[in-house]
Recover the amino acids of this structure.
């Protein structure tokens, strides 16, 4: 049975990272596409302002808390989330599962060249991994049709979509009945990390729940985006108290 906690109108799965991995392994055994979303505090603030985005997230088959703020907010509702499940870590786990189970993958998104670099690095780490294709994230309507046709033709088991939120989640939702894959996952900037164009926070910051602070130190221009974190905490506190 699926256990979730509703935080500012979005149902978040309450599970450990290992349990999320097992859920994904189960998805790979099924015949219909499963949607995996990884909202953090910033995305949940956006979902409050955009009901269509909240609707998409609430229809996800696995919605994990990619941010310490989401974990903290769950306590206001009396249903504490077990632990943070970072989207980047879950993507890496799925890549390893794909390699060991000989499943094929497809990358969609990022700037031109990013997906190609990610595939190159992946093949260095996992020789022989099955890559069904890749395409950058800057495409028009005509190109989109060609991309979907390529996905249908090449039949990947897992599609990683890096179009930025909420575009990537909405794209998965809009096309879920066409793609024919087992899993479609929104991965955002994780594709840049896989390509070597961006770096994750050191392990100390990740374990301490301070990955957001490390990003702010590296990119001070993110300051105004980071203001969504305290806004989210206040929204969640008020939401929990008024139920």
């Amino acid at each position: 049975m699926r256990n979730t906690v509703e935080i500012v109108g979005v149902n978040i799965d309450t599970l450990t990272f290992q349990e999320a991995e097992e859920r994904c392994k189960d998805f790979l055994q099924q015949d219909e596409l499963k949607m995996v979303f990884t909202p953090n505090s910033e995305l949940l603030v956006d979902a409050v302002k955009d009901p269509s985005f909240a609707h998409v997230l609430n229809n996800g088959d696995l919605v994990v808390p990619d941010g310490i703020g989401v974990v903290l907010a769950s306590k206001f509702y009396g249903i504490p989330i077990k632990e943070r499940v970072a989207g980047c870590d879950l993507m890496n786990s799925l890549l390893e599962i794909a390699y060991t189970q000989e499943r094929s993958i497809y990358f969609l998104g990022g700037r031109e060249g990013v997906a190609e670099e990610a595939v190159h690095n992946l093949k260095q780490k996992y020789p022989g991994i099955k890559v069904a294709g890749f395409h950058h994230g800057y495409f028009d309507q005509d190109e989109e049709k060609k991309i979907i046709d390529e996905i249908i033709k090449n039949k990947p088991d897992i599609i990683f979509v890096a179009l930025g939120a909420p575009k990537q989640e909405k794209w998965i939702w809009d096309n879920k009945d066409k793609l024919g894959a087992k899993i479609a996952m929104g991965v955002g900037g994780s594709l840049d990390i896989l390509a070597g164009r961006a770096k994750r926070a050191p392990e100390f910051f990740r374990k301490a729940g301070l990955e957001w602070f490390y990003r702010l130190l590296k990119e001070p221009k993110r300051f105004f985006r980071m203001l969504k974190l305290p806004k989210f905490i206040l929204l969640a506190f008020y939401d929990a108290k008024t139920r």
Notes: Residues 4-237 form one domain. Strands lie at 4-7, 10-13, 34-37, 62-63, 104-109, 130-135, 158-162, 183-186.
